[in-house]
Amino acid sequence: MTNSKPIPKAIDDEVQQVSTIGLALLENPLFNKGTAFTEEERDEFALQGLLPMHVSTLEEQVTRAYQHYQQKTTNLERNIYLTALHDRNETLFFQLMQDHVAEMVPMIYTPVEAIAIEQFSHVYRRPRGLFISYPERHKIQQILENYPNPDVEAIVATDAEQILGIGDQGIGGIGISVGKLAIYTVCAGIHPATTLPIVLDVGTDRQAFLDDPLYLGWRHTRLRGEEYDEFIATFVQAVKAKWPKVFLQWEDFGRSNARRIIDRYRNQLLTFNDDMQGTGAVALAALMAAFKVAQTQIRDQQVVIFGAGTAGSGIADQICAAMVRDGLSEDEARKRLWLIDKEGLLHTGVKGLPEFQQKYLKPLEIVQDWQGTDTDKITLADVVKHVHPTILIGTSTQPKSFTEEIVREMASHVERPIIFPLSNPTELHEAVPEDLINWTEGRALVATGSPFAPVDYQGRTMVIGECNNCLIFPGLALGAIASQALHVSDEMIEAASLALSECAPAMKDPSNALVPSLDEVREVSRYVAIAVGQSAQKAGLAEPIPLEELTQKVDAKMWTPRYRHYRKV
Predict the structure, then answer these.
(1) Tell me: the pLDDT tens digits for 475-509?
(2) 551 neighbors 530 (Cβ within 8 angstroms)
(3) Cα Rg for the chain, rounded, in angstroms?
(4) CB of 231 closer than 8 Å to CB of 201
(5) What is the rounded CA–CA span in Å between residue 272 and residue 184?
């Protein structure tokens, strides 16, 4: 870290004031230009002789960096290379990412980031973000003060209990916070100097980490109960005191904590849980596009969700709310939602379930009449056979659980079955799109949680949309920050879903994807952000201003990676 600090008012000016010189400047990723420092800058900042003579352009540097990237033979090596570039030169990193966004986002986010996170303590190179450990809870305010960039607008915080379908990752969870905020910048242009990744180190229950001599986190079983809640409360109060207008995203918290935390703090600051609200929002956007293709309405659906954790229940919440907006009562909407977890179908005979699942319990007497069904554990196959769902969504992390038998049974009762295997990483998908399309004679409308190639079926090429949360949360954050909203409301998330659905290529061609590709994500995020800002104004959570002015504020927040000319302070 150095004492060079970005000057927010000058972030998009052509001239940037910088106080660091020499090697310290070359080691500051926010200000480093590498070989692109001009002759004048090399003289002024004591860089002569520290760099090769040729003054490169950013375009030349991107070409060289991409050549290096292409030489990597595994996804983990590509992730490590991009991480190292991020740590060395942020402008070059983000320009490279923007030029190859669809190819590289999976390398720093899902699914590849999961591999890097598992290996965090063994591939650790240099710090990024803040590590806030429970034994240092009395120092949280001091820790926040230590962060060198004072004008933070967006934080992603995780306690790493439920990372990307791979579970408890302890201190390695910082990787998901870093990756998410890189996505904020790549996809929505939020300036990297205003982002802060945080891991809340509350221990780990993974014995392999506790036994690993190289593990870098607090060597303690995971904190629970009142002590945990007090730690989170202390953290929130410190953040509010330091950055009262910051956008705080909670990421990959366990099912016992995620819902409680967002419910407790959602009206105290600008905060959002991507696993519940973001996953639900992008899934709902894809469903809205599917309904257009299938020429049906959401109020007419029977929905089975396989996997009722934070993601699955978050999707259920979004679908339920959309059904209510479409004319159903909340009770009628819930009757159309069937959630299946490790206990089987959630019904009133299953005890000890968390509160967020209880509202979706089916009366036990409904299923007792299902012939041939063991009510001790009602399986996915049982539910599909008796419910005749029109929508099947997977967030279970149980690979191949959408079997041919189950899919064919579903497809025998509905003309256009909507099937979303959303678990990730890729190897945890409930089914692959090619099988789903073949088993339904080309009738299935499919979206996935990780990238898949198009499927050719009887002369048609069917593009598979990836329900990637980065199509939602960067634009949502951008709109909330630009409009200076007080809180993130359900209406703002609904507005983000609707805006994203309107961008779906399937709206023009039913063989196309139900969500836009990552190649379009900057334009999509801008569109989402404006819709979110308008929703915040309508709800009285942001100052009402004309659409043109709101659009200007959104555009002003969308940083473009380029080298500014430096002047010494």
Answers:
(1) 999 999 999 999 999 999 999 999 999 999 999 99
(2) yes
(3) 24
(4) no
(5) 14
Strands 460-462 and 455-457: antiparallel
**3-state SS assignment for residue 183:** helix
What are the counts of helices (DSSP H) followed by strands (DSSP E) for the chain?
Answer: 25, 16
- Structure confidence at residue 275 as a pLDDT band (50, 70, 90): confident
- Mean pLDDT, all residues of the chain: 93
- The CB density around residue 454, as the number of other CB atoms within 10 Å, is 15
Distance CA 364, CA 361 (A): 9
Helix H or strand E segment including 88: helix 75-88
Identity of the amino acid at 130: L
What are the two backbone dihedrals, phi and then psi, of residue 546, each rounded to the nearest 5 degrees? -60, 150
Amino acid at 324: V
- 218-248 residue pLDDT tens: 999 999 999 999 999 999 999 999 999 999 9
The band of 188, judged by pLDDT with boundaries at 50, 70 and 90, is: very high
Dihedral angle over CA of 84, 166, 420, 398, nearest 10: 150
Q: Which residues are catalytic?
A: 109, 180
pTM, 2 dp: 0.91
228: left (phi over 0), alpha (psi -120 to 50) or beta: alpha
Per the DSSP assignment, residues forming a β-bridge with 394 are 306, 421
User: Residue 10 corresponds to which amino acid?
Assistant: A
Q: 446 pairs with which residues across the strands?
A: 419
Q: Which two tokens stand for residue 213?
A: 């001599």
Question: How do residues 307-353 score in pLDDT, each as one tens digit?
Answer: 998 889 999 999 999 999 999 999 999 999 999 998 899 999 888 88
Token readout for 273 is 């849980």
The answer to whether residues 252 and 173 touch, using CB atoms and an 8 Å cutoff, is: yes
